[in-house]
Amino acid sequence: MILFLKLALRNVFRNRARTAVALLAIAAGCAALIVNGGVIYNIFAELREDAIRGRYGHIQIYAAGYSDGHLTQPGFFLIEPEDARRAVELLRELPGVERVTRRREFSGMIASGVHYVAFMGIGVEPESDSGFSRAELRAGEELSAEDRYGMSCGLGLAQKFDGSPGTLVSLMANTDSGALNISDVTLRGIFEGGMKAYDDWVLKLPLPAVEELLLDDRTEKILVLLDDHRAVEEQRERMAELFEREGLELETRAWNELALFHNQVVDLFSRELDVIKVIVATIVILGIANTIGMSILERRIELATLRALGLRRVQVGSLLLVEALLTGLIGGVLGLVLGWGIAEIVTAIGIPFPSPPGSTRAFHGGVDFVPGVAAFAFVLSVLATLAAALLPVWKATKRPIAETLRGR
Questions:
Q1: Do the beta carbons of residue 314 and residue 393 sit within 8 Å?
Q2: Among 91, 293, 300, 343, who pairs with 369 as Cys (CB 3.0-4.6 Å)?
Q3: What is the per-residue pLDDT across 221-231, written as a single tens digit (0 to 9) for each?
């Protein structure tokens, strides 16, 4: 067996120029898969972090029944103050939990001079909300727990009512009883959250001011940020057991159940990656098939001689396939090294991406070296090389010995 492998390896490097071409084609195909997959997974990671740290946290907690019933009965499925306080205390004690905050969403109208503008409001705890927002401050200052009636809003919303830091506005909202309540607040900061639909409608207000405006101190949701995004399901199970043990009627939802835009983009690019895999595999097969075919054709006298000396067709075919396998393995290893090198260089330089659809800001990406993608690229390169060798090997073993030795 060892002698067989040595013979195959010697044959691989006998024609160095042709072998170099074959190895280059395999390595280029393998590296292309690694780099393309790395770019896509880097985009996935950016979108994931934007969804988690800019919108939803890792886990959101509601009153039991909220997910199914809050659209038809928005004021019914809210967490009572004592339950919210107890839940936050318990969550902050859990290992692996980085940050916890409460929120209350509401809607209404902003009155500022002659402007009356609809808004979507978010009641936040300023001291803990920063970990759940990747918004960039464009003017003014951040919200402060000490400034009860300070407000911040998106850039597009501020433009609608011609607001600037220091502008005094009136917020109008309906309470759960249907009464209209008004509260005067001061615009302290203007942010850009990255999504145009978000910046055009959203304002943030400290929770005490929201509770005063809505005449209701209940909590709509509790957001939880974890140390590791891979521990979401494990932490959800732990939280469910904890709430049941403490008698708290609460439910949980993971960020990926809420991030619709993220899920759509991931689905789109995953399909694109599948298409790229097929294209690269086809290119490798076509590129290698010609090289292997020519190599076998040049060795037809040698192969016929081996058969004339007593080697069976299966043995000759096995030798050729082992040569193809060794070529694929060596080319795959070179592709891994090449792909890793390109990933490191490109990541150090950075890739400027334009704003995604609906977004208001561009971002700099890189190329992630993903072990799963690298392993797939390596295996695909080897299999593609073997697939490219099948037809030439079959033709070589089927050629009559006498005709081949006579040069026909």
A1: no
A2: 343
A3: 999 999 998 99
